[in-house]
Amino acid sequence: MTTPTLEELREWIGRTESRTETLAAEPVQGLAATFDLDGDALVSQP
Q: Rg of the chain's alpha carbons, rounded to an integer?
C-alpha cells in the first residue's frame, strides 16, 4: 500500500464513499461482552 499524493487526496474533496457489511450476531455479542456492553442492543435483526 502506498501513501496517496496530495493531488490524489485533493481529488476526493467533496466526495464520499460508503461501505456496509453484514456480521454474524455471535462475534458482535462476544465483543460486546468483552467491553461489558449489552450485545443484544448492538445486533439488529433483518
A: 18
In the chain, the amino acid numbered 41 is A
Domain ranges of the chain: 6-42
- Separation of alpha carbons 42 and 25, rounded Å: 9
Region for residue 33 given its phi and psi (left: phi exceeds 0; alpha: psi -120 to 50; beta: otherwise)? alpha
C-alpha cell belonging to residue 43: 445486533
Question: Per-residue pLDDT tens for 4-22?
Answer: 999 999 999 999 999 998 8
pTM for the whole thing? 0.40
For residue 44, what is the DSSP state? P
- The answer to whether 39 and 30 have CB atoms below 8 angstroms apart is yes
